[in-house]
Amino acid sequence: MLPYNFKYELKLLLRSRWIQLLSLLLLVLFGFSTFNGKQKVEKRKNDILIAKQQVEESDQAMLKLLDSVERGMEVSASPWTIPTSPIAVGNYHPRVAAMESQTMSFVSTGQADMFTHYVKPTVAGDDFALNFTEMTSPVQLLFGSFDLAFVIVYLLPLLIIAFTYNVLSSEKEQGSLRLLASQPISIRKWVFQKLILRFFWLSLLVLVSMVLVFVFVGIQPLAWGSILALLGLTLGYMLFWFALAFLVNLFVDSSAKNAVSLIMLWVIFVLLTPSVINQVGSTLYPMPSRTLMINEMRESKAEATKKQDEILDNFLRDHPEYAINDSTQSRNFYHRYMASQKVVKEELEPIVNNYEEQLRRQQSWSKKLQWISPAIVVQQSLNQLAGTSTEDYGNYRKQVIEFAGEWRDYFTTFLYNNTPFSKNDYAGLPQFEYQVGTSGKIGFSALVLLLIASALLTFGFVLQGKSEKKGLLSQ
Predict the structure, then answer these.
(1) Is 246 part of a structural domain of the chain?
(2) What 3-state class would DSSP assign to 97?
């Protein structure tokens, strides 16, 4: 019966032009989404490249100015910008702390449309309040980005629904179900074979379309291992929706009801469940008011400004290595300011930690419940594969804050030792290098999806087997 079903299903799909239509549609969807993702990655690379070029040009001008000052020549520059001052170098010539794109970043935009990919920490800046968000259109955030993850998570299930909703119901409506029931095969096995064959053809079309698109856009050879993980995750997600279609075909009567039931499941798993989990997380772990946090920062800074001399004395008492070369006459604004900033940071650290802890709890809540919806699992896995997940940007922010502290401490030594900055010190400037975090377990996610789909198929076989004995399919 299986060879007959295979030949019959292929002829049926070819005559109905389903395969031709799906081939064209998948090529268009995968092609446009991949091209769109590559364009975003190229823009990100160009923005970082421009920022680094600006730093290089600024450094060249700084070195020329330093050379002129060290030669005793007069320079036409504002006194506070002359690079012999370490604070001038730390504020006006910062390094670019960039989060470079990964090989598979084109797959999913993830959090990339909300967070910036480079910052320039300065000596006088507030590293705990570094802003990593971009000015983004709320309309764009509402509709999201048309990337490969969007096609896989949102659109591919709709194609599967259109491809599978009437496998059995059409036979009932055409009056051929009794003829099929007379064959030496159970109805559920016949439906299973039909859906497996359709899964095979659609999977083949998806694999071929993806590979053709990736070859056309010029994916690096080293990325093909990640592409295999992407293909495995996609097939596992597709199998889940085919398993749902198997259950609906067995237990729902008409084609219209099948279509409505599958669309309802799509809304529940793809739209409703992620929104509910996010809303419940926000309710259980509400975020402290960012406005109040900013106000407390301003109040602490204002209070510290009034006590800068006292703060500086206490700072030098705690750091005798700086007090050795200090004198009352050598104290200036930045001596007092840098000491007061350290105090402000220590006072505000509990407030910032509380804000970040609530955010971490929200994210932990969502991560624990992601297995309720395969759509969330696939989206999170694709974000991890692309290096645009929440964890990736949290890792980047942590590295930038550590670098900001290193940058500030480097020039603080010059400041409190009253040592001018020279050309020889340029080579020792701290440099930022982004360290990619560990990627998520994409294979584990694909395996879980496979197990869920297998459980659904087994449930359909067991429960429908009992129904067949009662003659429910012989109507």
Answers:
(1) yes
(2) strand
Integer Cα distance of 331 and 312 in angstroms:
9
Q: Which of 130-144, 180-194, 259-273 has the lowest mean pLDDT?
A: 130-144
319 phi, psi to nearest 5 deg:
-125, 75
Spatial separation of the C-alpha atoms in residues 383 and 112, rounded to whole Å: 10
19 domain-assigned: yes
Residue-wise over 199-208: b if at least 16 C-beta within 10 A, else e?
bebbbebbee
| Mean pLDDT of the region 247-264 | 89
Q: Is the pTM of this model over 0.90?
A: no
Phi-psi bin for 327: left (phi > 0), alpha (psi -120 to 50), beta? beta
Which is more confident, 174 or 382? 382
Instruction: Give, as one character, the DSSP assignment of residue 370.
Output: G
**Alpha carbon separation from 309 to 165, 312, 399, 416 (Å, rounded):** 76, 5, 32, 14
The pLDDT tens digits of the residues spanning 99-113 come to 998 888 899 988 888
Residue 325 reports pLDDT greater than 70:
no
Domain count, the chain: 1
Structure tokens at 326: 């200090």
The continuous run of DSSP H or E covering 315 comes out as helix 308-318
**Alpha-carbon span 257 to 248, nearest angstrom:** 9
* Within a domain: 153: yes
Rounded Cα–Cα distance for residues 92 and 83 (Å): 9
Which residues are CB-contacts of 322 (< 8 A; sequence separation ≥ 6)?
Answer: 315, 316, 412, 413, 416, 417
Residues of the chain with pLDDT > 70, as a percent, come to 77
Distance of CA 381 to the CA centre of its chain: 9
Domain extent for 457:
2-34+147-269+448-469
Cβ proximity of 140 and 70 under 8 Å: no
- Residue 225 CA to residue 222 CA, distance in Å, equals 7
Q: Which string of b and e fits 229-267 if b means at least 16 CB within 10 Å?
A: bbbbbbbbbbbbbbbbbbbbbbebeebeebbebbeebbe
3-state secondary structure of 28: helix
